[in-house]
Each structure stands twice: as structure tokens, then as C-alpha cells.
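For reference, the entry.
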Amino acid sequence: MKAKAAIFTEEKKPLILDEIEIDDPKEGEVLVKLEASGICHTDLHEMSGKANNPLMPAVLGHEGGGIVHKVGPGVKGLKEGDHVVPLYISECGECRECKDPNTNLCSALDDTYYEGVMPDGTTRLHWNGKDLYHFMGTSTFAEYTVVPEIALAKVRQDAPLDRVCLLACGITTGIGAALNTAKVTHGSTCAVFGVGPIGLNAVQGCNLAGAEKIIALDFHDERLAKAKEFGATHTVNARNEDGVKAVKSMTDGGADFVFEATGNVKAMKQALEATRYAGGKCCLIGVAPHGEEISFAPRMIIAGRTLMGTAFGGCKGRTELPDLVNWYMDGKIKIDELVTEEIPLEKINWALEQMAQDAAYRFIIKY
């Protein structure tokens, strides 16, 4: 099958728009006709030259929503016509991690996921007679993609795929960081360092949890205003004042729950410093450039702070993402407010440039 795609061939260079060949799904795999894909900063990070050994050429993208077009042998839980959201963290239900209620990670695809191939070690994507790598097991910057069944969440058919596709990463990660990983409590104090798309949803998660005070910190006043729409009670422009001191002054020495959503190691350290001792929790969400490290005095932890991280907001995608879709359909969570613009695939490089300048929240590619 032929399909239009955006192809990543070189760091710090625009994606190449061209036609690719897509194989039929093999054992346990599903061919998905994508209706829409969000553009995430993780895609931008992969292209930036700051990622660790990016695979090229590849089809990037991991915030997709689509319809099952064809199922391979052995697929039991999906059929043609089902609506699905590809997952960059699979859920096989059988591995040690899947059976652990305290994590959403899954080791079933570890051996091939990081190699950019399908479970049998080969690719389903080809361009000009050469193999293309899969990205995060999803590759949603194409009209069609092949994904293992265990990395697809089936969602209700009345939910708009051009909105719930965003649950494949940013929204779920932010909300889940608050609800699943840190487990924000009712009446608590919270602070979020960086209120881009993921940080806004950490704010939204804290609001859903019933936090009494939610402090949003960022360099951009427009983003701070947006954070108020998502539930922030206080805002701090960290370009103009010391963010750590501001949080401490508003929370009697430190917030109960602090989230970092910038990927900046300096902000990560500040987030920990803004967390109260004797029980405060600091959750790192952002992805730092490869090779960068964070350092802090051991007393910061000895004094009773907990430093934690989250991947996909602790969400077990196949079983729990459909609930978030229900929340959206019931008006409980915001998605529409994050959409900057809907675009055709042909405008993807322009959209990536806008995101590199922090000039957008989410662009939606409509196929």
C-alpha cells in the first residue's frame, strides 16, 4: 500500500514529504488508517540534534487517532472499523510490569521498540526501495501505520479522533502525573514549572484532584493566562522573579506537590527546591537533552522529599485511556482548548518551526 508521509532523514533539517510503501500487518499487528495526528515536542526533540542516537530515515509522530483498516493473524481484540489510539507504551497484560499495579510500563516490546522495528525485527515502512524505521512504535506522521495490537487502545466511535489523538501523549502525561504518579490530594498545594502543553495538563490534573492552591510558573505571560483556564490559582513569571522563592512564600515553605514540565535540568533542580520537606513530592515530566544531569545535596531527600518521574502519566494505555476519552466526552477534561490549528500534512514543517519558538500548543494534522 502507498501512503503520504513526512520522513525524518537528517537532524536539524525539515521533514521530507513523499510517498512511502506500507506492508500488510503480520502476526499480532494491525494496519491503521490515521485520521489525525498531533505534533508533540518529543518529535521536535528527536529532530533537534539533542536526542540520543536518533534512527534515520524514519517516520516520526506518536499522537495519532485512526481506524483499523486490516488486522494480521492472531489479532483477537480488534477488528476492521474499530477506532483506536496508538500507544508509545504498550500494554501486553502478561509481563512482570503489566501485572504490577504500581507501574504502567510494559517490557513486551523492549527488544525491538528501541531499534525502530516491529516485534519480528523487521519494518513495515519503506521509501524508494529502502527500509524506514518506526518511531516510538507508532509513526503517525503518515496516512497509514502498522502497530502491534498490544500498543493500540480501542476507543468509543463517537469520540472525535482529531481530538482524542492528543491523549496519546501530552494530555495523558500531564493529567496522569498529578493523578496517577504523584497522587495529588484534595486541599493540597501544588506548583508546576513550565506550562506548555504537558504542564497545562499537570495543572488540569491538580485541579481535577481538588488541590486548593495551584501555582503555574513560566516565562511567557500568555501561557500563564492559559494556565488559569486550566485551573491555576496563582501564576509566576519566572523571568521576572525567583520561582523557588515565590512558591515558598505562597506555600509556607514549599508546595506539597511540584511538577517540572520543561526538560530543563535547572528547572528540575528548582522544582525539587520548591517542594516542602517532610513529605513533599517532586515529579519530573520533561525530557532533558541527552547527557545532561541534575545534581542536588543529599539533604534535600534526607529531609523527607520524594523525587519521582513519570512516563505517559502512569497510564496503562489499553485499559485506562478509554476512560480519559469518556472524561473528555463528558466535559470533565479540556482538549479543544489546546488545539492551535488544524493543518494538512503539507504544513508540518511550518508547524514544527512554530513549536520550536513556543508559538503553539498543539497542531493537528488532518489526513
In short: The two ends are 16 Å apart (CA to CA). Residues 317-329 form the longest helix (13 residues).
